[in-house]
Batch of 2 targets.
Target 1
Amino acid sequence: MSKKRLHTPEGVRDIYGLEYLQKLSVQEKLHKKITEYGYQDIQTPTLEFFDVFSKQVGTVSSKELYKLFDKEGNTLVLRPDFTPSIARCAAKYFMEESIPIRLSYLGNTYLNTSELQGKLKEVTEIGAELIGDDTAQADAEMIALAIESLLSAGLVNFQVSLGEIDFFKGLCEEAGLSCETELALKDFISNKNHFGAQELLEEEKIKEEYILAILKVTDMFGSVEALSEAKSYVKNDRSLHAIERLLTVYEILSFYGVEQYVSFDLGMLSKYNYYTGVIFKVYTYGIGDAIVKGGRYDSLLTQFGKEAPSIGFMIIVDDLLSALSRQGILPKPQMANALLLYEQANLAQAVSLAHDYRKSGKQMTIIQKSNGKNIQDYLIFAKKQNISFVSEYISSDKIEIYHIELDQSYQITQNQLLEGIV
Amino acid sequence: MTMMDDKQYLTFALGKGRLAKDTMALFEKIGITCEEMKDKDSRKLIFVNEELKLKFFLSKGPDVPTYVEYGAADIGVVGKDTILEEDRRVYEVLDLGYGKCRMCVCGPAKSKELLEHHEMIRVATKYPHIAKDYFYNKKHQTVDIIKLNGSVELGPLVGLADVIVDIVETGSTLRENGLEVLEEICPLSARMIVNQVSMKMESDRIKKIIHDLKQYL
C-alpha cells in the first residue's frame, strides 16, 4: 500500500473543530462592528492581474507574490493585500460617485515569504476602506472603528500607534535628501536604528541641524506633548501640516471616547509605498508584529483612473486569535450541539424527533448506535466534537440524557426534550 | 491604559559566551544586575531578578533575533552579523561598541583576480544570506554558495571553494593558513535589538534602559 501525503505545504494549514469555531465567532464579531458603521461587504477575486500589485502601486515586493499564468500567458497573482483590489473595484464601479463610499472585505491573502521563520503564508484579513473622503473625520472614523472592532472581539490590552507619512517626507525635503537616501533612511528609521540613520546622514554630508532634527523627531513617540515638542524642530509646511492633522484626528477620537488607546509615533513608516498621510498600527501582547495596519492612500486610486483620496485598515484575524489565545482571553464558543443515538428499529422516530428539535433553530446530530460501541465511547466522541449533551432514544416517554458539561445523566420524555428542558 | 497593574517581566535574550559577559558588565554600570547568573555551577536556563522584574536567558547567537521577533524576549543582545543573516522584524536600537570585527571576503592572494570580473565563483560561508546579498546586489557577480558550519577557512585549502565569506577579528587564523582579506563587506559589533511590540507596550522602561546605556557608550 502506498503512503498518501497528508500534510499541507509549508506556511498553510487546516483549521477545524474548536479552533475554527473560535475563528468564525471572532470574525463574526469584527464583521458585525464594521457593518454597524455602514460598511458594505464586497468580495473580490483571489486571483488578480499582476499589474494590480505592480511596483508603481507600491504594495509588497514582487518576489513575495505567488505568480501563475493563465492560458493566454498573462501573469496572475494570488492577492497579497486587499487594498489595491478594492481600489481597482472602486475605480471600476463607482467612477462617477462623488459621495464617499464605505466598503468592507473578509478573505485570505497570500504572501510567499521566507521559509522556516514560523510565519503563515496564507492569513485571513478583515478590513474596511473609506473611499473618496480626505477629511480628518474619515481618519478618526477608521481608527475608532479599528479600536471598537478589537474591543468587540474581546481584546483589552492594546496600543494604537499613530503616525503621518508626510511628516517624514517634509523633513526629507527640507533637508534636501535624494530619493535614494530617503529610501535608505526610511529603512533605518522604521527599524528604530538611529545610529545607522546618523551614519548615513553624516556620509551624505547633510547639514548638522537637519541630522539632529531628523534623529530627534523620528525618535519621538508618546502622547500629545511629544507632538508639540516635535513641532519646534521643523520649519517646513508639509511636516507642520502633518502635525496639525494628527492633533485634529486626536481631538475627534476623543468624541468617540477612544483617545486613550492612541499614542503617536512620528518615526512609524510603512513598507507599502501607497500610503500618503495618516498611518496607524495596533500592537498587543503575544504577537511580535502589528495585528492591525491601516492608513491613508490618497493617490492609489488615481493609478486606476479615479481621483479619490481614501483611507482604510485591515485586521489580521489569525494574529488576533493568537493574541487572544496567548493572553488567555479567547472567548469560549457556546456549545449548543446535541447528539441523538438510536437503535436501528427506532430510525423513523429518531428522524422525526430530530426534525422537530431542529425547527427551533437548534442543532442536533443523529447517529445510529453501532454494535460494539458503548455509551462511554460516544461520550468521549461528543467531548471532542464540542457537543453539549448526548441523548439516547429508548421510547417516546424515555430519553436518556448524558449532559457533558454538568457531567450528569437523567431521563426525560420526548416532549420535554423538544421544550428545551435539557 | 495598556500597562497592567502588576508589572510584567522584561526578558533579555543574550548570545552565549563573551558577548553575554561583556553585556552583563555593561548592564551592571546602569544598575541592571543578576546575581543568579554569576553562579557558575547553576544549571538554570532562566535567571531572574525579582526586585527589578527582569529575566535573562542565554541562547545561541542566531536564535536571539528569533526569540525577540516572537516576543519570547523583549530585548536581545547579539552580533550585527547575526542580525544581517537572520533578517528578522526587530528594532535595532543600539550599537554597543564591543565585539568589534569585520565581515570579509577572504581567500588565497591569487583569488583576488576572481573578484575583479563577473565570473562565476564558489563561495564557502556560514552566512549564505550576507554572502548572497553582497555578491548579487553590490558586486553583481554570480556565485555558487556552499554553506559550511565551521572552520570555513578549510574551504579554499581543500579546493571546495575559491573564496570564503566570514568574520575576521585579528586575521591570525587566516595568515597561519595562507589566506588573506580580499574585500571588506561591513564592520560588525554587538547590537541591542528590541521586539516591536515591547517597544510600544513597555516603552517607558525600555527607553530608560536605552537612555542609560547611551551614557556609557
Target 2
Amino acid sequence: MSKLFNVSAVEAFEKLPLKLRNFFTRYPPAPFRQYASEQTLTNAPDANPFIPNRHPVTGKVQEPVYSLRRQSDLYKLAYKFGIADLMPTMRNNKKFYAEKFEGKPLLKGVLSPKGHKWERTYDERKKKIADAVAKADEIIVEAKGSKYKKRIERKELERKTWF
Amino acid sequence: MANDITRMLERLPKHFRDLLISRIDQSQIPALRTNGKVVLEEQRYTRPEQWKVLEGDRVMFAKGPNKGKFGKVLGLHPSSNTIYTDIAETKPLVIPKQLWQDGQNGYLIDFPKTVSPDDVKVVATLVKEDGTEYDIVAEEVIFKGKYFDEDYKKMMPIRRVKYHEHIIIPWPRPDPAEDCAFSTPPEVAEERTHSENSILKFEQPADFTIESLRDPVMKRPYKWDKQVLKKGDITKLTAPGMPYSETQKAMFEERKQIRESQITEMSAEVMEFIGSRVAEHLNNVTDPNFKHYVEKVSGQYRERKLARREQEKQFRDLQIKEAEKRNRRAKRANAS
C-alpha cells in the first residue's frame, strides 16, 4: 500500500484537531513539563489535570480539571494521532485499548477451569481400573483358592507359541 | 358551569373521558353536538404562533375538496383548534327555533365546516422593485423576533417564510374595536394621579402602625415566629456582607492567578516535538478512510468551516435587513 501522507512536523501539527492542540498548549508534554501520578496540591507545579487534587487552603479535594469523559475523549483522539504516550497519566494508572487488557491479571476460572465431575476424577478412576486389572489374578486366587492358582500355572505352561 | 365540566373532564382518564363526552353528545340535539371535535382546555391554541393564521389572512387550501383554491380566514374556533373560511364545505344542520338567527325561516340550514390551520397555507403579497405586486404561498412559516402591534395592542411575533426569513408576512389588520358606554378613554387611563416624593419617607400618617401584613386570623403559624433558630435560619436572616465576603474575594484572586498562569501560546520547540511525533505516525498511514478522517477533524478544516459559516450568516443578515427595508417602503407606499 502506498503512503498517503508526506508531511513535515509543522504541517503534521496543523492536522491535529483543535481540542488536542488546545490541550497540549495548556499542558505541554513530558520532556517540557512533568506531571504527578498521585494526588497533589492544586497549585503544585506538577499538578496533574487528570487527577482530583487537594486545595492548599480549604483542604478539600477538587474535581479534576478534565472530567473522566473529556479525559477519555482526549486520550482516544491522541491515540489516533500516535501521541497517546505524551498525555499525563490518568488516575489509578487508567489505560485504554490493548494496554488496558495487557496488564489485567487472568481470572481464576480462566487459569484453572473447574470442569465436570467426570473430568475432575478421570485420571484417578483410570489408574484405579489399571491397577485392578494388573492384580486381577491374585485377587481371584485369593477368593477361589489353590486349585485356581494351579489352573493358571498350567495354562501358562500349555500356551502355544509360534516358535 | 361549562368550565367546571371541562375541568372535571380533563381530570378523567382518556377512555372514560371519551365515553362521557360521547354520552353527553347522545343526550344533546344534533345542533349542539360536539361530534368528538372538542379539544382539551390546555391543548387549545392561545397564541398567534400556534394558530399561524389570524382572522383576515388570505390562505390557499392545501387539502380537502377546495385544494388549490384561495380563500380568506373569517374567524377562529378555539374549542376545536380550527378556523372558519369563506370557501368551505357545508353540512345540513337542524336548528331549534330558539336558536334561529335573524332572517332564518326554516329549521334546516347549511352550516359551514371548519378547517384545520395545518391544511391551509398563508398567501402573502410582495412588491417588486418596479412597484408591481405578486402573490406567494408560504409552504411553511416560522416566527422570529417580536414587535408591538398598535392595532392588536400587544407584542406580536414576526411571521416569516421558512428558509426565506427575509420575507416577512405581516399579520392582517383586525377590525377596530368600538368603544362602549363603559369604556375608559386612553387619556384618562394613562393619567398619572399619584407620584412618590421619596423612596425613603412613607406617606402614611405618623401615628399609623401595623404589626404585620399577614392575616391575623390565619391558622397556619408564621414560619419565622420560632423560639429557637437553627444555623440555616440565621444564615438566611443575616444580610450578606457587601459586596463580597473575604472568602469570595480570596477565591476571585485565586481564579485570577490561575487564569494568568495558564499558558495560552505554544512554544515552537513543543510544537516541533509534537509535530514530529504526529508526522512520524501520519507518514505511515495507508488507510484512505483514516486520511479522510484526519482531513475532517483537523484544526485547519474547522477554522475554514467556522469562517465560512460566519460569512454566510453575515450575508443572510444583510438579506433580511434589505427585505425589511423593502417591506417598510412598500407599507409606506400603500399607506400614502
